[in-house]
Fold this protein.
Amino acid sequence: MSFNQRTLLTWVALSAASLLAGCERPPIEAVQNGFRGTGMVQVYNPRIVAKDIPNHVVPEAVPPAAPGGPAASRVYQNVKVLGDLSVGEFSRTMVAMTAWVAPEQGCTYCHNPQNFASDEIYTKVVARKMLQMTQKINADYKSHVVETGVTCYTCHRGNNIPKDVWFTAKPEARSDGLIGDRAGQNTVSIAGAYSSLPEDPFTPYLLGAQDIRINGETALPTGNRHSIKQAEWTYSLMSHMSTSLGVNCTYCHNSRSFASWETSPPQRVTAWYGIRMVRDINNEFMTPLTSVFPAHRLGPTGDVGKANCLTCHQGAYKPLYGKSMLKDYPAMVSAVVPEQASAMKVASK
């Protein structure tokens, strides 16, 4: 065999290996959720799903507190959110939160051990705000979380900071050369599912309230800003949502008419509420904490870490695959007295 033949065979082998490296070996599972031939199919790699399952296991609940006892606000100082809980249930909730958020540091992650009532450690102020946020989500956003709800563990999973938060991208320098204005595009973006789509679709949509559109309903130039350029920002957000939930576009959209609400799966409505829920918690709970966080916890533009779909879902179509923890932690819904907590736990069985 000549040198040229060996070179050609080597090139062919390397090319084939490169092509196969981008493929997933069978078996692959497909779940059909529409008429045959329409592309309404969710495709899953069972090996990837199996590998990810341990990240979505709900921890064992802290043993229940003994019923009765005085309210926590009558025994402890500076209890502003969970003061209506009994001392036992209050302590139990604190133990659970420590395991969810700071299993290595323990109570001192938020508290001065010499003065637990003090707010001198910023994480205590943040934790109080996050408790209020959790209660609001469970009480006012059932249109998205339904009865499953959320707890601190939904996002934190044993980490001080949820592993998936986002910061506003640093404004790029404008160029008068041939490169021009990138408009936040043309770099590989994790947010845009490793594409060259805009790298920060969250600031306009999950902090601001810009229209999420692909095309306009009126002709140019009568104020129609839904151009191809704007559509790319929408595609970046949609790619993020798809990756966050581990699904493809047809989980929320009808493949025959992506824009049609009438023929879309019900998950599209759930996602619509989810976008507004995330936008609200970023503006109502996260952004007001900007001055509380130290500089090393802020982003390149001086903003706090904020939530997006990946923060809670972490690759699952439902956070923790839909397993609810609220029956064991009713304080995550609202501050309730022990008798109410017991009633909620019985009703949830």
Q: What stands out?
A: The radius of gyration is 24 Å. Residues 62-163+327-349 form a domain with the Photosynthetic Reaction Center, subunit C; domain 2 fold (CATH 1.10.468.10). The chain has twelve helices and two strands. Confidence is low (pLDDT under 50) at residues 336-349.
